[in-house]
Amino acid sequence: MAPRREKMRLGDMLVKQELISEEQLMSALKLQKGSGKKIGEVLIEQGFITEEVILRALQLQLGLEIVSLAGIEIPRDVIRLVDGDILRKYMVVPFEIDAYQANILHLAMADPMDMNAMDDISIITNMQVEPFIASTTEIQTTLDRYFGATETLKAAKRYTREQEAFRETAVAAVAEVTEDDISDSPIVQLVRTLLEQAVRQRASDIHIESQENNIRVRFRIDGILHERMIYENSLLPAISTRIKIMGGMDISEKRKPQDGRLSVMVDRQNYEVRVSIMPTIYGEKIVLRISSALALTKSKEDLGLSGPDLDKFNWMLKRPYGIIFVTGPTGSGKSTTLYTALKELNQNEVNIVTVEDPVEASIPGINQVQVNPKADVTFANALRTILRQDPDIIMIGEIRDAETASIAVQASITGHLVLSTIHTNNAVTTLSRLAEMGVERYLVADSVIGVIAQRLVRRLCPHCRKKKMTTQKEMEFLGISNPVEIYEPGGCPICSDTGYLGRMGVFELLKVDDDLRQVIVKGGDTKNLKEAAREGGMKSLKDSGTECVLKGITSMEELIKISYEG
Length: 566
Description:
Number of helices: 24
Shape: globular
Low-confidence stretches: 1-5, 170-177, 179-184
Largest sheet: 7 strands, mixed
Radius of gyration: 28 Å
Number of strands: 18
Helix content: 40-55%
Strand order of the largest sheet: 12-11-13-14-10-15-18
C-alpha cells in the first residue's frame, strides 16, 4: 500500500524540524529562482545543511525507507520505463517493481514530497508509484550509468543535424567551425556531460582521440583506460574548440600542441582540469586531467600507510630541517603524498612556500608558485627567491637538474624542511642519483631525512572479490612455503564489473639513520646502501605489496605489476 501523501514542501519541513532557519530558506528560495535546481541542492550548496541530514529528516517526517542505489542492478525494462530527461528533471530513479503487486513501481526520489514528480511518473508508466528516499549524488551517478552514453550521443546527433541544416541554408559554406557555432548548446552540453560523467565514475583523465573513421572517448579509472563513447569524426572541431574556449587557449591554432586549464563544478565540488591538446595524423588529441583539492589531501591512513611505515612518515614530518624525497614513476601518487604532508604541516606558526609545475590544487594558508619558463621562473630561480621570503617549509614539485638539487640541499642544511619528488625506481637509488647530480656525498648524508618510494595498486572490490588458494608459482613469488587463501577480482555493478574499487599506495620508506649515513659518506654502492637500509627496517615495495595480497586488499596481478623495477 502506498504511503500517505504529505502536502508539506521540503523547505518548510526542514524549518519545522528546526534544521534550517526561515531566513536561510528565504535566501535559498531567492537563489533557486531561474536556476533549475531543487531547493535541497541550493540549501546544500549554501552550506545550510548536508545531504545526510536531509535524508534523515525526510525519513523521520515521512516514515519512508532510504535506499542505496550504489551497486543495484536495475532491470532494463524498469529503468527504461521513463525517459532519462524526465528522470533528471525530477531527480528520481525507478529501480524495481514490487515483488507482490506488479502495478506498483518503486521510485527512488531526492525529494519524495514532490507530488508533481510522482503524478507524472505514474501517468507515464501507468503504474502506482511507491516513493523511497535516495541521495541526489547517488541518483545522478545511477542516471549517468544508464543514460550517460545515450545523452552525450543525443547531444552529438543534435549538433550534427543542426550543422547539416545550417549548411543546407547556404548561409555560409565554410568547413571551419566558428566560435559562434561552438556556443551552440548541444556541444556545450556534450562537453559538460563528459566532465560530469568522468568525475562521477572516479576518472583521473579523459582521452578524446581522433581516429581514421571516428572519435574515441576513454576514461582512465583506477589507472586503467576504459572506452566510454564513439562519435563521428565531424564533431572533433566543435569539441576541440569548446574545450579550448573553456581552457583559455587559441581556437585558431591547430598545428601546435597547447596546454590550458579550467575549473568545473560537479555535485557541489570544484575540480581543476588540466588540458593538453596535441595534433595527430587524424586531428587533435585532447587529454583532460581531473584533480580536486579534496582528492589530493587525503589522511595519512587513506594513503595506505600503517604500522611502522606510518611511524616513520610521522617521524620524518617532525624533523625541523632536512629533505624528504617522494619518488616513483608518473601516476604513482607522489603529488597526493606531498599534498597530504603539506596539509599535516600547515600551521599558523610556519611559512610554507611551494614551487610547482603545475600547481595541481590550491591549499589555503600555503604560498604556491607556478613555474613559468617564459618569465624565467624556473625551479632553481624560484627557489632562490623563496629563500629570501623567510620560509620554514619549502615544497619543490620536482628536482630535475643539478642546480635545483644543489640549492635544495643547501636550503635543508641551513635550517629549512624541504619536500620534493625525484624520478628513481626505488628509495635507495635516490641517494645515488643525488650523488650523480653532483651533490657531495657528505651533503647527501647530512641533508636527506628519508625517502618514500611508492606505487599505486588497485583495491579489490570488497563486494565481489573471490577467494582462491595460492598456486605453487604464487607461493614462490610471495615467499611462503604453505598454501594460503588469497583473493582475486570478481565483478559486480558497484565496481562496474572490473573487480576493483579505488587505489591505494604501496610504500618503501627509507629512514636515513646514523649507520646509513656512514655508508653514504664512505661511497657505498647501491647494494651496500640497500643492505644498510634493510638492517634499518626498510621494507621493499614487493614486501609491502605482498602484505596487501595476504590481507586480501589487492590481487597477485597488481603485486606483479609493482614488483619489477625496470
